[in-house]
Amino acid sequence: MLDPVELSVFPSCTDAISWSSDGELAVAAGDYFQILTPKSGKHEGPTPNATRDWQITRVKANLFTHPEWPTFLAQDRNDFSIAAEQSNSTVVGLAWSPPGLGKFRRSVLAVLTSNLLLSLWEAVGPQKQWTRIAIVNHALRSQSGDSEQAEGISFRKDNIRSFNWCEPLKASTLPAGSSFLPAYESRWGIPLLTVVNELNEVILIRPRRSELSEGSPCSHQFHVLAVHPLESQELNNSHICSGSLLENAFKEKQRVSSVSCGPWLVSPLASPKNSGCAVAMLALVYGTQLRLLNIQVTIGNSNVDELQTYALPTAFKEHHWSLSSEKLASLNITGPLQWLHDQSCTELSLVVGIMAGFITISVPSNTYNGHDANFDALAVREWPIYNPETEENMGCNERHWEPISAMASCVDEQNDTCNLCLGTLGGIGLTTEMRQLQNGDPLQRPRWKHIIEDCQEQFDLDLDLGGNSMSRIWGLSSYRNVTAILFTRHPTDMLEYRVASDDKSTIVFSSELEHDPATSFLFAPQISNGESPVHVQRESALNFVLPGDDGDVEPDAESQQLVYVAICCTITGSKNKSLLTHARKSLERLAIVTGADLSEEMRKCNGESTAIAARAADQLSGPGGQVFERCDICDAGIGWHSAQEAKCANGHLFKYLDEDSLVLMRGGL
Hints:
Protein name: Transcription factor IIIC 90kDa subunit N-terminal domain-containing protein
InterPro entries: GTF3C4, TFIIIC_delta_N, TFIIIC_Znf
Shape: globular
Domain Transcription factor IIIC putative zinc-finger: 619-655
Helix content: 10-25%
GO molecular function, one term: histone acetyltransferase activity
Number of strands: 31
Number of helices: 16
Low-confidence stretches: 175-181, 657-669
Organism: Penicillium arizonense
Distance between the termini: 44 Å
């Protein structure tokens, strides 16, 4: 298991840690955020800002250029915002995007600062310097381009209060006529981002990486798919006089503090013009109320352009069940929010933080996807959180009043289970499995809580506090059944002061599995279906090199030779019928373009790994001879005996440069 990591920072918000699908950790720490990149192993030597397992990078988050954050005048009292106008732009939220949005199809980091700007960051250049690559607020600014609109309203439209990455949206089936290698959005899914501005407008945004030249001002484009304004509702507070000025002021100042999007349920292909319809449910904490919205997205056919993107007509629909429910009306909703679901998604659960506890809402899939409008099927259960028993409170259940500061779900795909982990600012840690939660089984004490208590005990001994110490949990995030916990340690029963140089935060790692995974396996590439990494990587490379159904073979000799090499590698080393069919079509196209005689290769595209003989000298100098490989040593033709090696007519052998390399062959190419 990974060793604990101690950072000389103090968390600046709750949910202050996020773990990407690439294995990188991000921590919110005031004006900065810190990136922990896993070391690859023996190739990396010792460096000053590193631990045994991690390379640590500190990034300043509150430096903006004038185009990124233009100067503006102070607003009037109705549109004045302390956060936007007077804050120090500290980090108040961060989250990694799904894979596929960044360079080399990696994840990018979304960072929300207290000046209400949402920035995207990624490592750029050979030195992997973390750089702000886009600001999402600019997409909202283009939407509010009404010249007659009041300046204050436009100002509030641009400010982002909260955000959440949706799960990547994947089409249920490929559009008719698509190429063998689908567009990158079919491979990685379509990334979608939900944001809420200061006018309480819920906005669904589609970020896409731009294929721009070097030095372009922005590497990403943002398309607003749908906007839904949240209407202010009656306050569920009997202590405020109905219709009073105070109630009206509360209504006007309510903001969305937390948002969470559930999984996409994709229906199959509905018509030749689309690739299916996807539905997800969006949960929001609006003031002290829970609001639920349905997002319905129709996945249109892939456009025939350079970017090969899907059209996404989108619609919002709000459910008023959460406002009319008597059970929810009596609760003080505080957040955070977390969706729980297994792979089948037959029933989903929404976990909602409340004062001194949390509630769970069980949502059947028919209600979730909008097929059944009967919201009476939603089961609400309240889970109070109690302080641990001590000598002082023995025998009485004392409620724990510290808020829930961290919530995460950990999915075990092998066992098809989903675990919930949560922590509070009072140091309470709880965990349970989704099915146990639905059955009403009691919550359990997680393994990582024991690790935190050991660290707290050491802190107590070092400072001679006599047991007067506590821990505060600031964030939880999971990666491949391992949970990272960010916490701080504090003295109790005394006045506490903070000195910046003494700020310390600790990250510990734990797994609820019986056997902790080794570090080398934790960050190793995951291969499905028991296939070897070399086999999977080779087929991915061949898919990329072979032209698609509607693609043409390039006229230059090197490209034609590369296609021929990929075809030979497929014939001699692959049993994938789809890939062999693809290779045969590429052979037919290559023969037409070059005039080469490729009848032998076409006969051998039958699913059996068959050797391809070296070409004679007259064939090498005849029509289309440029596609065949020649020996660098004797200039004879090169034959293919397997996908691992090739031999020329005179016996010179050529092998892979490296077992794990994606280089196809080193012959004449």
